[in-house]
Design a protein that fits this description.
Strand content: 5-15%
Distance between the termini: 61 Å
Largest sheet: 6 strands, mixed
Structural class: alpha/beta
Length: 584
């Protein structure tokens, strides 16, 4: 596993740098500002050294020259600060533009990913990659931009100056430097895997918290709180351990390089002092040399910190790029057909499908539905009813066979036009964090007030909406706080009634509604389905007795087919489950 991670890091680094290169104007300005800042900062020790030489002894003090050098120091310091300020602006802008692009790419990829990817990855982990990992990456990248350029230029600049002043002492500094680089490199190589584990476990923790919060009623109902806390403590313990290990080993970098840098400074002080005693250096030059030695070693501490932080950033970037580069859903053909004026004929011809190769599900499924027919799908749990709906909507593609709408294979049709021809009401309701008006008009944003209210009345939702504090302008959360499950389902039904597409899919659409309201909704559905091809998945057979075709499924196969009376007359499986529901 470590081998794979070691290979991933250089590739991830190249991907990061390719994004940085696309912002080369800001990068160039940042480098120029860093160079100006370093040049001005390096000029100050020379000027200070001259000032010291102007104060060399009694009767040999040149106050005019000292004041001139102080003015020069102030000007250099002011210009260096301005260059630093402009460099920080460029670095911040560049970093957050890159972060914005990565989040946009991640969100676009999520929209294009097949449902199989989202079903096989915890949603909390995906959220953690897009939010937390990108933030961690931004921190590391910003530190790199801010300190890396200046640090490298400072090292090169101070080396040049020191060689020009006293090449023997400068050579000693260069000889000790590789030890500092070795320490930083050794620790950085061993921190990447730890930061990767930390990031992955943090994603697992986010997913677990989302799962626990989203299902809090079930947790409380089954007194699962203690077990949930134990599981969270276990994950939290791993996050703590990985974080401590990553932080501990990464924190060794700074003291390690500081030790080496102090050796450099001590060597410079000793050799410089001996040179001054021999008359090879003035006191001012020695002071400047010591200042340069300090400036030379300081970037190594900063760069070592940058390298450590950058390992964390690369670990997070790798997880982000894994999402961005995930295999998208099968692309549409360039000449994909756009469904318009759909009549609603649907034909499934010898369809085979399974979610996993080793577990068979839909086998040799065939049906021919004429425009306007109502098709009910019944059968025991796990027989493939909802899978058929997923295939009709092309959330999944068939493994073999074909599904056609108005004679067009849906794999040759644009997904957007296919799905816009279906109205779908599921057992599991989904409402976005917005007003009721925005939720109802999601599929038809240009709907008039009268159309919206008419749809709400048809769904028997208008009466409870009026009783809400702001009526149709009441803001509801994603979980529909303040609304019952039945009310949320009525809103989903009203949303479809407002669009009225040529084909409908009702998957246990009235499962959360009381019996009296269900009768009213069934009447509304009957009116809505008039002339529209409809697919109805139901466990309660009372809701599908008027269907034109009832498909009875068992283990992915259609075992019986016909209308209600025909199936009862056969006295088969349908009659068995019907009699079980209505035996009393």
């Amino acid at each position: 596993m470590k081998k794979n991670k070691a290979k991933a890091s250089p590739g991830t680094f190249r991907k990061v740098m390719s994004r940085v290169r696309s912002h080369w104007p800001l990068l160039l300005i940042s480098i120029l500002c860093a160079a100006a800042n370093v040049f001005l900062t390096l000029a100050i020790p020379v000027v200070n050294g001259n000032a010291i030489d102007y104060l060399i002894g009694e009767g040999r003090v040149d106050l005019t020259a000292v004041l001139e050098t102080l003015t020069t120091v102030l000007v250099c310091a002011g210009l260096a600060a301005a260059a630093q300020w402009l460099m920080n602006i460029c670095n911040n802008r560049m970093t957050f533009e890159i972060v914005q692009e990565m989040r946009n790419d991640a969100m676009r990829k999520i929209e294009s990913l097949p449902l199989s990817y989202l079903d096989s990855h915890p949603h909390g982990d995906i959220v953690s990659r897009v939010i937390t990992d990108v933030d961690q990456f931004a921190d590391g990248l910003l530190m790199g931009f801010t300190q890396l350029f200046s640090g490298i230029l400072t090292i090169l600049g101070t080396l040049g100056v020191m060689f020009s002043v006293n090449w023997q002492t400068a050579l000693l500094v260069v000889a000790i430097t590789p030890l500092s680089l070795f320490v930083a490199s050794f620790i950085a190589k061993h921190t990447f895997d730890m930061f990767k584990l930390q990031s992955e476990t943090r994603g697992e923790q986010t997913a677990f918290m989302e799962e626990m919060i989203g299902n809090r009623e079930v947790i409380k109902a089954f007194s699962f709180e203690k077990k949930a806390l134990e599981q969270f403590d276990e994950i939290n313990e791993r996050v703590k351990n990985y974080s401590l290990r990553a932080t501990f080993f990464s924190s060794l970098t700074n003291p390690g390089t500081r030790f080496v840098n102090n050796l450099v400074y001590a060597a410079v002080a000793l050799t410089g002092a001996l040179s001054a005693l021999r008359g090879r250096l003035s006191v001012g030059q020695l002071t400047a040399f010591l200042s340069y030695a300090n400036q030379y070693t300081k970037p190594f501490n900063e760069i070592s910190g940058v390298i450590t932080e950058f390992q964390n950033a690369l670990a997070c970037a790798e997880r982000i790029f894994e999402l961005i580069e995930a295999e998208p859903q099968t692309p549409e053909p360039k000449d994909a057909f756009v469904l318009k004026g759909t009549h609603g004929s649907v034909e499934a011809d010898n369809v085979w499908f399974s979610y996993t190769p080793d577990q068979k599900l839909i086998e040799d499924f065939s049906i021919n539905v004429k425009p306007g027919q109502r098709v009910a799908i019944v059968g025991p749990t796990g027989c493939g009813k909802t899978t058929i709906i997923n295939l009709l909507m092309r959330f999944y593609d068939v493994k073999a066979g074909s599904i056609k709408v108005d004679g067009h294979d849906i794999r040759t049709v644009t997904r957007q036009s296919l799905r816009s021809n279906y109205g779908m009401v599921l057992q599991e309701t989904w409402l976005k964090n917005a007003t009721i008006r925005e939720n109802l008009c999601m599929g038809k944003p240009d709907a008039s007030e009268e159309e919206m209210i008419a749809a709400a009345k048809a769904a028997h939702a208008h009466s409870f909406i009026r009783r809400l504090p702001q009526g149709y302008d009441t803001i509801i959360t994603e979980s529909g706080s303040g609304l019952s499950q039945g009310q949320k389902q009525l809103l989903c039904i009203a949303r479809v009634m407002l669009c009225l597409p040529p084909m409908l899919i009702l998957d246990e659409a009235t499962s959360s509604i009381d019996t009296r309201t269900e009768i009213l909704i069934q009447n509304a559905f009957a009116q809505m389905m008039e002339g529209r091809t409809s697919f109805i998945v139901a466990h309660r057979l009372s809701t599908i007795q008027s269907a034109d075709i009832i498909l009875v499924m068992r283990e992915g196969h259609i075992t019986e087919q016909g209308n209600h009376e025909q199936l009862l007359a056969k006295n088969g499986f349908y009659a068995e489950i019907y009699n079980a529901q209505f035996s009393e």
